[in-house]
Amino acid sequence: MPCIFCQIIEGKAPAEIIFRDEQVTAFHDAHPIAPVHLLVVPNLHITSLNDFETRYKSLVGHMINVAQRLANDHGVRQSGYRLVFNTGPDAGQSVFHLHLHILGGRALPFHFR
Ligand code: 5GP
Ligand code: ZN
């Protein structure tokens, strides 16, 4: 199975792309769980945070920098937002291409039962 995020980055699958540079692509989540639900994805296929390596430090820093700017552009800088890297089964990771969720636009629950 080809990676859906690689396909989006390569323009082979549709997405509402909101930002792109040489390092990352950002687009709206197809199944938003908050009024603002964006994804920042490295253009390089990295499976998850478990595959993080020291050489990716500036890339991941750039992802956070882009997320901060997108949060501002989508009006949640002041109201607040959450950045999430789901990693592995217990976190519910479903796409195995590293991605940073930006969630905001409503109060976000943070409960564990
Ligand atoms: P995960 O659960 O792996 O942290 O998050 C994957 C996210 O990618 C989910 O929120 C899901 O809705 C989103 N997603 C999965 N497939 C697609 C797609 O083809 N296009 C877009 N825009 N989002 C997707
Ligand atoms: Zn990929």
Helices and strands in order:
Layout: H1 4-9, E1 17-20, E2 24-28, E3 36-42, H2 57-73, E4 81-84, E5 100-104
Antiparallel strand pairs: 1-2, 2-3, 3-5, 4-5
Zinc ion binds at residues 3, 5-6, 45, 97.
Description:
The chain has 113 residues and is of the alpha+beta class. The protein is built from two helices and five strands, in the order αβββαββ. The chain has helices at 4-9, 57-73, and strands at residues 17-20, 24-28, 36-42, 81-84, 100-104. It has a five-stranded antiparallel beta sheet with strand order 1-2-3-5-4, covered by helices on one side. The chain is globular. 24% of the residues are buried. Guanosine-5'-monophosphate (5GP) is lined by residues 4, 15, 27-31, 86, 92-95.
Q: Average pLDDT across residues?
A: 97
What is the subunit arrangement here?
A: single chain
Q: Which sequence of SSEs, written as H and E, runs from N to C?
A: HEEEHEE
Tally of individual helices:
2
- Sum up the overall morphology in one term: globular
Q: What's the N-to-C terminus distance?
A: 34 Å
